[in-house]
TrEMBL record:
The keyword Cell membrane does not apply. It comes from mine drainage metagenome. One of its GO terms (molecular function) is N-methyltransferase activity. Keywords: Methyltransferase, Transferase. Residues 111-152 form the DNA methylase N-4/N-6 domain. The lineage of its organism: unclassified sequences, metagenomes, ecological metagenomes. This is DNA methylase N-4/N-6 domain protein. One of its GO terms (biological process) is methylation.
């Protein structure tokens, strides 16, 4: 988001604009209860905007995750072979019973219909570690539904 993304076939993401993303982010973050976690993928070129939004909604950075991919999604000065996300907390949630590694292998989803789908197997450790059975798992952009499958 916030990068005017286009995949190799020229497809783009509807409403990929600063105004839409910032408004969605503010609404969702402001409604999050104290004592909860937020895991947010972000564009490294826009990290300052994301950090400002998270902090203004009462979140603090408590970790950083790297999702290593065996394939390159794009190449410019470097081959892009990872995604990153911040682990944020609102107030003081309990520590996870079994902390996970901050580097996670992200298998290719095989989803040819969604330009940047994440494999649900890569998201499952996050849900298991930072939520409880019956908790609400919110994915405001939802994409290809990988988070929904992992949270099932």
């Amino acid at each position: 988001y916030l990068v005017n993304y286009r995949d190799r076939d020229g497809r783009s993401i509807q409403n990929d604009s600063n105004a839409v993303a910032q408004a969605s982010l503010r609404r969702g973050l402001s409604r999050t209860e104290a004592g909860r976690f937020l895991i947010s993928f972000y564009s490294w070129t826009k990290v300052d905007m994301f950090l400002d939004a998270w902090r203004s909604a009462g979140f603090r950075v408590v970790g950083h995750l790297v999702f290593r991919k065996a394939y390159s999604s794009k190449a410019r000065f470097l081959k892009y072979q990872h995604e990153q996300a911040y682990l944020l907390a609102k107030s003081n949630p309990a520590l996870p019973e079994r902390p996970i590694a901050d580097v996670i292998d992200m298998p290719y989803s095989g989803n040819k219909l969604h330009p940047n789908a994440e494999a649900h197997r890569g998201l499952l450790p996050l849900i298991e570690s930072f939520s409880q059975a019956g908790s609400v798992v919110l994915d405001p952009f939802c994409g290809s539904g990988s988070t929904l499958v992992a949270a099932k």
